[in-house]
Amino acid sequence: MAQLAIESLSTHHVGPISLTIDEGQCAAILGQSGSGKTLMLRAIADLDPHKGDVFLDGKPSDRFQPPQWHKEVGLLCAKPLWWHDTVGEHFTLANDPQMEHCLSQWLSQLNLVNDIMSWPIQRLSTGEQQRLALLRLLMNQPKVLLLDEPSASLDEKNTDRVEVLIKQYQRERQTAILWITHDIKQAQRVADHIYNLEQGSLTLT
């Protein structure tokens, strides 16, 4: 369970922004391309310089070691990066039977075959990369999800699968979610509150 609180956050041409997402809640962010949605997520994830404060359960981000903050507040990039040759090298199971079971179940839910773990990265389609990047993030068991268009490269069926899995994870772990999307209908499906980012300011729709 986790609460994410953002206070007077500013980065580049975005902000100041203040927003609180309670445990088990999802806030969707809409906005034109170039409005700064990704910049906002990167600042919250403490990947870019910024002003203002971000709190996880009342504890400021600067009280966390960077690796711990990045684990607890997990960012899913719109274009995931891969640094090893094969898929499985990006997943750390640490002999955890529970997480191994979760991964197998999640692969099935997202219509991915189990042996995809042995595939070279270059064999993956864009949609497979996007779904696997989501699973890679969930394997860290983050308390907060920062999702940058997690279904942008997916067809309708796989978009539905991704939405169901994320909502399942949210419900089971009472995760706070900040979800960027260009699709108002998706925002209405997944979010408790919908905001619009325009000219650096965040407004409730």
In short:
This protein is of the alpha/beta class and 205 residues long. The chain is built from six helices and ten strands. A six-stranded mixed beta sheet has the order 6-7-8-3-9-10, sandwiched between helices. The protein has a four-stranded antiparallel beta sheet with strand order 2-1-4-5.
Total strand count, please?
10
CATH topology: the name is Rossmann fold
Give the ordered list of helices and strands.
Answer: EEEHEEHEHHEHEHEE
Cα distance, first to last residue? 26 Å
CATH homologous superfamily grouping: P-loop containing nucleotide triphosphate hydrolases
Q: Flag low-confidence runs.
A: none
Shape designation: globular
In the CATH hierarchy, the architecture is: 3-Layer(aba) Sandwich
Give the structural class. Answer: alpha/beta
Instruction: Look at the structure and give the CATH class.
Output: Alpha Beta
Number of helices: 6
Beta-strand share of residues: 25-35%
Q: Number of folding domains?
A: 1
Read across the widest sheet, the strand sequence of neighbours is: 6-7-8-3-9-10
Structure description:
- The chain has helices spanning 37-44, 66-72, 97-109, 126-138, 156-173, 184-190, and strands at 4-11, 14-21, 26-30, 51-56, 59-60, 73-76, 144-148, 176-180, 193-198, 201-204.
- It has 205 residues and is of the alpha/beta class.
- The chain has one domain (4-204): Rossmann fold (3-Layer(aba) Sandwich), CATH 3.40.50.300.
- Strands 6-7-8-3-9-10 form a 6-stranded mixed beta sheet, sandwiched between helices. The protein has a 4-stranded antiparallel beta sheet with strand order 2-1-4-5.
- α5 (156-173) links the parallel β7 and β8 (176-180).
